[in-house]
Design brief:
Layout lengths: L6 H32 L4 H27 L9 H18 L10 H27 L1 H4 L3 H33 L13 H24 L15 H10 L1 H32 L4 H23 L5 H26 L2 H37 L4 H30 L11 H12 L1 H16 L4 H27 L1
Helix pairs in contact: 1-3, 1-4, 1-6, 1-7, 1-9, 2-4, 2-13, 3-4, 3-7, 4-13, 6-7, 6-10, 6-12, 9-12, 9-13, 9-14, 9-15, 10-11, 10-12, 11-12, 11-15, 12-13, 12-16, 13-14
């Protein structure tokens, strides 16, 4: 049974997630605000652009997964792509938040953003798919996989925290623009500086992860890319389809908070800088959430832990609604956010491990492994979740009549719209995801143990056969 050599190497692997989430955080949490408030792009354009980008991702992501599966270099199949993807994604991220002087009142700015918006998704795929696909390449032990995924998610949360906490706080010192109420708001200069710092961090941490780790479990993939094959995998692997559904819905609930938050605090609360304290409590929750699985496994199953995680997230979101609309208390809002983020952090770790289980299930059911193709679905479902969040956000802005120049002086209908998107929809999504997971996902208990045993037996048989051929 292959196993990553030592705990230090697991840490080095995890550092790569910091850089990936610096880019994620800028794109998912602040790009909308930059496009609507700084570049002043029309919401209807963005409402069209996002689904188009995701349609292309539906083609590009599994294609990239197959390319990774068939990569053979001295560095392995994953690490070369992580490095290339990180470098390219960093460049695109910097360009997205730094207008080179294109007039914002003409068609060229829309073309510029459209190309870079789609380009970010493509270059992110180049790094993200091979990074998370490396988890089963380190070990076949489910407990080891959980530990590695937990470490990576710990660093992922650190990367998110650096951006979501640090950016609103840094804005006070970098921005030179104030709202009608007198509070600092994001401007061109602040977006530029922070995006460049995030791009540099992405490259730095990717290099640490790539040059400090090695793959220990090697699998051969001789399948060539074809859409027919991708559709066949999705058709045969029923648990992959179920996973895609419940994970996409729950991830969309999480993205509603991160994507709408900057608008909520600016428009409904009246001070965008308070988002920093809100995210600080969320970061603490994310850290606590990483303890849920290792502690919970001492008493119960991964299935029960995941159900608890979704339930805790929903409870936290509903508590935020109570604190904001009934108790009118920011500190209580922060505390309930801590609980919600504890649940979502544990949820994300579990989802990474579920994908490794789904790969094994697919090998037993279909007769071949499709690691990177399967893990490519993780990146794709995250982008689909973001798309769902973005469509809801832009539709709400259009319907309510949001005016980026008014900030906290927007009409009551606008504030109600952001309240709904921030405090109600996430809880509904978590509960719906919990229902689907509980009723449709079957990879747990004795059944999953039998799948793991069959995969190990097949791997040992291949090793023995290879050894016999070498001896001859």
């Amino acid at each position: 049974m292959g196993k990553i050599k030592n705990f230090t190497e697991k840490i080095w692997y995890g550092t790569g997630a910091i850089g990936l989430d610096l880019s994620y955080g800028m794109f998912y949490s602040f790009l909308n605000k930059y496009l609507t408030d700084v570049l002043k792009l029309k919401a209807n354009f963005l409402l069209i652009l996002t689904p188009i980008a995701r349609i292309w991702d539906g083609i590009n992501d599994p294609m990239m997964g197959t390319i990774v599966d068939n990569t053979h270099t001295k560095m392995g199949k994953y690490r070369p792509w992580i490095l290339r993807g990180a470098l390219m994604n960093a460049v695109v991220l910097a360009l997205l938040f730094n207008n080179p002087g294109i007039p914002t009142n003409g068609a060229w700015i829309y073309i510029y953003i459209a190309v870079l918006y789609i380009g970010w998704g493509m270059t992110n795929t180049l790094a993200d798919i091979p990074y998370w696909s490396m988890v089963p390449s380190f070990t076949t032990d489910p407990k080891e996989r959980s530990l590695i995924a937990t470490i990576a998610r710990t660093f992922s949360g650190l990367g998110q925290g650096i951006i979501t906490i640090g950016a609103p706080l840094a804005m006070k010192f970098i921005s030179t623009t104030t709202s009608p109420e007198g509070s600092k708001v994001w401007d061109t200069r602040s977006f530029s500086v922070i995006s460049l710092a995030a791009a540099a961090g992405l490259i730095f941490f990717a290099c640490l992860s790539v040059f400090k780790t090695k793959e220990t479990v090697f699998t051969e993939a001789k399948e060539k890319f074809s859409f027919k094959k991708i559709l066949n995998i999705a058709k045969q692997n029923d648990q992959l389809r179920v996973f895609m559904l419940f994970a996409m819905i729950s991830n969309a609930g999480f993205y509603m908070i991160s994507g709408v938050g900057v608008y909520f605090f600016d428009v409904c609360v009246g001070d965008a800088s308070l988002q920093g304290m809100f995210n600080t409590f969320g970061a603490v929750g994310s850290i606590l959430g990483l303890l849920v699985i290792p502690l919970g496994l001492k008493f119960t199953s991964r299935r029960r832990i995941y159900q608890f995680s979704l339930g805790l997230a929903a409870f936290g979101f509903l508590g935020m609604l109570l604190s904001a609309k009934v108790l009118d208390s920011m500190i209580v809002l922060y505390i309930f956010n801590l609980l919600a983020q504890t649940g979502t952090a544990a949820m994300f770790v579990s989802q990474t491990v579920f994908l490794a289980d789904i790969v094994d299930y697919g090998e037993v059911k279909m007769g071949f492994r499709a690691e990177s193709v399967t893990f490519s679905m993780k990146g794709f479902l995250q982008k689909m979740a973001y798309t769902l969040q973005t469509v809801i956000l832009y539709a709400g802005m259009m319907i309510s009549g949001y005016d980026e120049s008014l900030h906290g002086a927007n009409a009551a209908g606008v504030k109600t719209s952001f309240d709904l998107m921030m405090l109600v929809i996430p809880a509904v999504f978590m509960l719906l995801s919990l229902l689907i997971f509980t009723t449709r996902f079957k990879l747990h208990g004795e059944y999953m143990e039998s799948i793991t045993a069959k995969v190990n037996e097949a791997r040992e048989r291949r090793i023995a056969e290879a050894a016999g051929e070498t001896a001859e």
